[in-house]
């Protein structure tokens, strides 16, 4: 079981952490939730039957861990005012780096204004590049419901993006 868990951990640690960081907006909370997620995975790895791909299974557990955390803490994740700085780009032109940094902050601020369900669906589709079927498995939605929610989330994102202009 140890080797199997190590493989799952190595293959999915970045995706799980990234998802949790975008949902919590806090490095320490994301690390704590990531640790809790992988503890759950370790305890349940023998129950993994391969009905969905490994990454979908891990993100589903991460999502459920995040939702439980919200309920326990009674947090409103979109009301946070402190936005962590995003690391700057690797370009050599300082002006380009500043513009890229501003764009990343703008995107992050818009994502944080979205409801959890919209933010989750956009991150899973556009950032993690999950298929509609995989997103359905993670969220418990049908493929058509996933498509509708992605459409609505993108429309809301566009509306918020235009307000930032």
Explain how this protein is built.
- The chain has 165 residues and is mostly helical.
- It folds into two domains: 1-75, Rna Polymerase Sigma Factor, Chain: A, CATH 1.10.1740; 91-165, Arc Repressor Mutant, subunit A (Orthogonal Bundle).
- Helices cover 75% and strands 0% of the residues.
- The protein has seven helices and no strands.
- It has helices at 2-24, 27-44, 54-73, 94-113, 116-127, 132-139, 143-164.
- Helix 2 packs across helix 3 and helix 6 (132-139) crosses helix 7 (143-164).
- The longest helix is centred in the first third of the chain and has 23 residues, at 2-24.
- The radius of gyration is 17 Å and the shape is globular.
- The chain starts with a helix and ends with a helix.
Write the layout of secondary structure elements.
Blueprint lengths: L1 H23 L2 H18 L9 H20 L20 H20 L2 H12 L4 H8 L3 H22 L1
Helix pairs in contact: 1-2, 1-3, 2-3, 3-6, 4-7, 5-7, 6-7
Keywords:
Rna Polymerase Sigma Factor, Chain: A; Arc Repressor Mutant, subunit A; mainly alpha; 2 domains; single chain; 0% strand; 165 residues
């Amino acid at each position: 079981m140890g080797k199997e868990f190590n493989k799952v951990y190595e293959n999915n640690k970045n995706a799980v952490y990234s998802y949790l960081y975008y949902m919590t907006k806090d490095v320490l909370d994301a690390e704590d939730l990531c640790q809790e997620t992988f503890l759950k995975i370790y305890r349940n790895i023998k129950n993994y039957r391969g009905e969905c791909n490994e990454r979908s299974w891990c993100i589903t557990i991460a999502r459920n861990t995040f939702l439980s955390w919200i309920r326990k803490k009674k947090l409103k994740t979109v009301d946070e005012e402190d936005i962590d700085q995003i690391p700057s780009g690797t370009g050599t032109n300082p002006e380009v780096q500043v513009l890229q940094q501003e764009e990343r902050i703008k995107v992050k601020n818009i994502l944080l204004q979205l409801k959890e369900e919209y933010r989750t669906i956009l991150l899973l589709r556009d950032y993690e590049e999950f298929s509609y079927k995989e997103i359905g498995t993670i969220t418990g939605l049908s493929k058509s419901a996933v498509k509708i929610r992605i459409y609505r989330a993108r429309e809301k994102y566009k509306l918020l993006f235009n307000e930032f202009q």
